[in-house]
Amino acid sequence: MNGDIVVLQQLLGNLMSNAIQYTTTGSILAEFSIKQDCLHIHIEDTGCGIDNLSLEKIFDEFFRVDSTRNMHDGLGLGLSIVKRLCKLSDIELSVESEVGKGTIFNIQTKYSARLLPENEKMSDKDLLHSNSGRQELLFATKSIAIFEDDPSIFSAYEKALAQNGFHVISLSENSAELANQLSNVNHIDCILSDYRLKSTTGDLIIQQLRDSFGVDIPAIIITADTSPKHIQLFNDLNIKVLYKPIGYTQIVEAIKKLIS
Fold it and tell me: Are 214 and 78 in contact (CB under 8 A)?
């Protein structure tokens, strides 16, 4: 297959996460095939399904089906990200659903693909080695999203991370602005956030990004708060905590360790 692996990872991550969230019984099928000499992906679940009225809105930002709001705590951004990625990558996306029976997503890419002849198929060992090499190439430059409302501290983070080969992404802490910015971001390897921001807190920002991409993005919160309540909160959310005062070198090393 010749195409953008990062985009495919985000599309599959969001769609599979969505299927898992809404399928309590039955199964989820992900099928890869070749149509018109290009990669085609079919994802089908036996979940609760979506009514026709809601089906027209599922790709809208922050939209969540009323009947399933209590099934998870998402913000309703995952499918809007899928739609925007498809538009940016000239990928055709279609959906059909029936309440009580499940939902089907079909993705027709423009990524040329072919089936390998039997004599060219890789062994499991060769496949693992190949995938390892691809991952090293794919993430040669790691992208770090920073949330820090003090400009001088942000600049120091940016300089320290850039010196270590990281790509720094500056994003808004405003929920609506952030959702719009994320439509142009293919992937984030790690989130670094202060806990107390101007209009929100770091844990909520991290959850919004994780929900948007449909993956548990590695994250670090920097705080001076050592209360048991917050220690438990960060632990439950799988967020690493670094306590102030702390040096920039220690922060960079913590990020390297977290995403290595």
Answer: yes
